[in-house]
Amino acid sequence: MQSKLSYKLIQFHTGNMIPQIGYGTYQLRGPECQAGVKFALEAGYRHIDTASVYRNEEDIKAALDEVYKTKLVTRSDLFITSKIGPNEQGYKNTLNACEKILSGLNIDYLDLLIIHWPGVGGSKPEEQKNAEIRLETWQALEKLRQDGKVKDIGVSNFLKRHLEHLLANSTTVPVINQFEIHPFCYDFETIEFCKKNKIVVEAYSPLARRDDILFKNEVVHKIAESHAKTIAQVALRWSLQNGFVALPKSKTEKFIRENFDIFDFELTQEEMTLMGELNKDHHTCWNPSSIEY
User: Fold this and answer.
1) How does pLDDT run along the chain (293 residues), one tens digit per residue?
2) 237 CB contacts (<8 Å, ≥6 apart)?
3) Can you tell me the distance from the alpha carbon of 108 to that of 141, in angstroms, rounded to the nearest whole number?
4) Are 163 and 177 in contact (CB under 8 A)?
5) Contact indicator for 138, 170 with CB cutoff of 8 Å
6) Smallest Cα–Cα separation from 10: which of 237, 245, 182?
7) Torsion of CA 13, 18, 154, 74, to 10 degrees
8) Rounded distance between C-alpha atoms, residue 96 and residue 93, angstroms
């Protein structure tokens, strides 16, 4: 339902566009993944987020093949993101990983390919080797974009220092940085750095993986009640009104649809401020601060 506020696309500095809400597929495999992707597309999502480490490309392909038959969408209607995992970093490894991803999804190109983690498989968090191999990975992404295998390239879980190193050693600016963001985990320094450098901010785990810190919070509960919306819908609305791309994940049709039904209300400035004051740097996923370089 999109009665008052339209579904928004955010423009990258390259000119390409990304839907502001996407369907996350982390930990979804098999029939659950296939059903979830179909439910999402039927609900109106056009942005699917996956990663090589999720190992669900063939399930996503199966879901897309079924939906294509219904004529609901074509490939050009979709925005598909994948990620290069820590063990796939390095120039040649990244090129090979991309080919594997494309083959698994049975597509000719990715709309977005990103580095999943600033650390490299086999390296300790404090090793400078992480930064060196990241640059090789980035150079491979540049090559893939040049060759038309990928439309845009970006990063995930990069803090300000990781971004500064990348920008100091490359003329290509990432279009996006995907990291954990919700009202209780809000890295203001990294967000501001991204904004300053025209890097779109993308929030994964925007519902704090249904942690009680969010779902039992009285402030959020009262705001949800005032709008006759769920806590999840209010948390997602907060992300969108901050200008973030949001990636909610669910395997349940009811919640998949509810998570998309966030375009017919708007939080007030006072409500946005109240939610913005809840930050406790509470990570429910990876914390990239361990990667020193």
Assistant:
1) 344 455 799 999 999 999 999 999 999 999 999 999 999 999 999 999 999 999 999 999 999 999 999 999 999 999 999 999 999 999 999 999 999 999 999 999 999 999 999 999 999 999 999 999 999 999 999 999 999 999 999 999 999 999 999 999 999 999 999 999 999 999 999 999 999 999 999 999 999 999 999 999 999 999 999 999 999 999 999 999 999 999 999 999 999 999 999 999 999 999 999 999 999 999 999 899 999 99
2) 229, 262, 265, 266, 267
3) 15
4) yes
5) yes
6) 245
7) -130
8) 5
How many angstroms separate the CA atoms of 65 and 38, rounded? 10
Q: Which domains does the chain have, with CATH numbers?
A: 11-211+232-263 (3.20.20.100)
Name the nearest CA neighbour of 163 among 126, 200, 129.
Answer: 200
DSSP code of residue 197: T
Find residue 82's DSSP bridge partners: 113
Residue type, 86: P
CA distance 151 to 169: 21
Q: Cα 105 vs. chain centroid, distance in angstroms? A: 18
Tokens of 33: 């993944």
Instruction: Give every strand in the sheet of 176-180, ordered side by side.
Output: 23-24, 47-49, 79-84, 110-115, 150-156, 176-180, 200-204, 245-247
Placement of tokens 């990663």 in the chain: 51
Phi, psi values for residue 200, rounded to 5° = -65, 140
pLDDT at 286: 87
* Tokens (6 digits) for 121: 């498989």
Distance CA 44, CA 4 (A): 16
Residues carrying an active site annotation: 54
Q: Is residue 53 within 8 Å of 101, Cβ to Cβ? A: no
The answer to whether 16 and 175 are in contact (CB under 8 A) is: yes
